Queue: 3 jobs
Job 1
Amino acid sequence: MSDLKWYLIQSKPGQAQRAAQELTNQGYEVFLPTLTTEKLKTGKRVEQIEPLFPGYVFIELSELNSNWRPIRSTRGVARLVSFGNAPAVVPYDVVELLREKARNQTVQVSLEANKPVNITEGPFKHLNAIFVEYDGEQRAFLLLELLGKWQRLSLPLTHIKSV
């Protein structure tokens, strides 16, 4: 039976990706869950990939067989998260669930004005609407036909998809 367990490394500020890359280069199994977000920069929508847990990287180690010494001196690494004198063990199921979600993550395509969309959540679930424009970073204005009239509403981007 394998004695591999997942642990948590705290990176130096803004260096989680660097820490993950350096640890990978040294032969460690690491996992840095990321999230694709859309931000407004100079008035334009830009997709960015950001860590799901800023400042933290998961690392898989064996208590008996892994060399723990180089971890502390790795570029980007601040410390191994510990409680007392023992490193904090992250439940294997939690990391596997996060890895599964990362494998299945789909990037939402940009929505075009006056194109149909489908509402996937909320009280208008399964209804089609027309995308009008973005409403900030996380929402969209839609036109929805209700009772013979077009109604303008704002919904989270996570509640709609292109048809």
Job 2
Amino acid sequence: MNAPATPFRRPRRGVRREQLSDEVAGRLRVDIMTGTLRPGTYIRLDETAAQLGVSITPVREALRTLRGEGMVQLEPHRGHVVVPLTRTDVEDIFWLQGTIAKELAATAAERITEAEIDELEELNEALAAAIERADPREISHAEFAFHRAFNLSTGRIKLAWFLLHVARYLPGRIYAGDPKWGAAALTGHRELIAALRRRDVATVVRLTGGEFADAAQRLIARLDESGLWD
């Protein structure tokens, strides 16, 4: 592979092949979305497997998944190559996430219980603790737990699943490692919780949409700085 892969944990004993393939696909997807793997880069099976500490099989299956998503394409006799990622692609991904998230937010503002709001406060405090420890992995998990609880409070499980599916393209690690993003996320969550207690649907929807708009701007700025679209 022409560009170095990011560190990958050794697979745990007993991890299913499908799960390992998903983890490899997730890592490669993030590397493509953040510009670490540039358009035109060939992803070599053996090199990628060695760099990630896995066998060739999950890498091959991961590339099949990414090919179905239009992130790589297979060139005969040459291998898998990263497809160009345009600014419009990034904007479209975040538009779709934001549109679904705002629909869920409107429902949450009407249906969420006080107990579920209390749970969101606890999860936000867990996020604050993770940010204090400056642990990106823990921050990502805490942020995911907060939004998972928020979305599940709607009772619209299928729509929440669609949002989770699209959210695979959101490279959480670049946000989790940014202290400014962490501070903004905590403030936004607290404002969201307060709006939920007031049953202020408009504010809940606005704050939710704002999170995705901010995430899109941060990623686009990073890709601009990297020279991806020069």
Job 3
Amino acid sequence: MSQRDYYEVLGVGRNASEHDIKKAFRRLAMKYHPDRNPDDAEALAKFKEAKEAHDVLSDSRKRSAYDQFGHAGVSSQGGFGGGPGDFGAGGFSDIFGDVFGDIFGGRGGGRRTHRGADLRYDLSLTLEEAVAGKDVKIRIPTTVECHHCGGTGAKPGTKPKECPTCHGAGQVRMQQGFFSIQQTCPQCRGAGKIIEEACSHCRGVGRLREEKTLSVKVPPGVDTGDRIRLSGEGEAGERGGPSGDLYVQVNVQPHPIFTREDNNLFCEVPISFVTAALGGEMEVPTLTGKVVLKVPTGTQTGKMFRMRGKGVKPVRGGPLGDLICRVLVETPVNLNERQKEILREFDASLSAGGKHHSPHSSSWLDGVKNFFEKMGL
């Protein structure tokens, strides 16, 4: 019976890397290993075939001979050897452990480090500061690497020793029947080393609590909810791990004049009855100075006026927003008798003109009259 091509057996290309070959064999071994398929002759045959292919293609010398001469080039070098349970020293359990070793960091593991925690700082800004941008200094409580022991946790002048339980791996292998899994070493808790004499300043932790001052560059145009990330300014990592990040959360305080929506600013501008009726000019504020608002004759309350380019420059780029002014006609209060008399005379003169002076009011009254007539009122 002719032998199948080894690359075909493993399901890989002829340019497959050593990692690809090993991965393909593990997959087939997990599927066809005799320990998982007792009394299954077909599975045994496929396992033998896969192991033979792996033994040749994972060895650079044998693979070179196979690529050049085919099966004849490796027939004298051993082919498949050993019993159906052979794979290293532990049979199927080693395959299982090898697979999980890849997932959790490789066989032997190596000592585990832990990234430091991210921190958050709430930064309150005025609208003017948020729109213009600002450099601010903040103080944050955090953990930093111990300056006395250099983060090792060991007494200055000493060093951590290799853990005698895991021999520096940080993990130990537990085997139950066919299954072999790795878990964190109970003695060193994954560090791979133990401290015989702890640093008196950090008590063996390798980190200290302290406050530090940082400079934060707030870009122009930020708004409530925006975050500024300071990489590596969070808490120090454990066992030499990287530091976390600091996130500065922006909150813009309410403004007495302006409200912001995206890149536009809004403000309400009260105008007198006379200005609304006769028109005129008035100064209104912007975040960069004063501008003149021209109020046309007969302006009604609620009228919107747009000041182009007087809003906010967006933080992520783009055109300037606008300032939108909403005028509110203010009703006079606290009138004296003479002012009241003048208004009565003025109202009488308006009534004489009918719809000419008050088109909206006249139209509304006509609609009300028609409604009452339809209702029979």
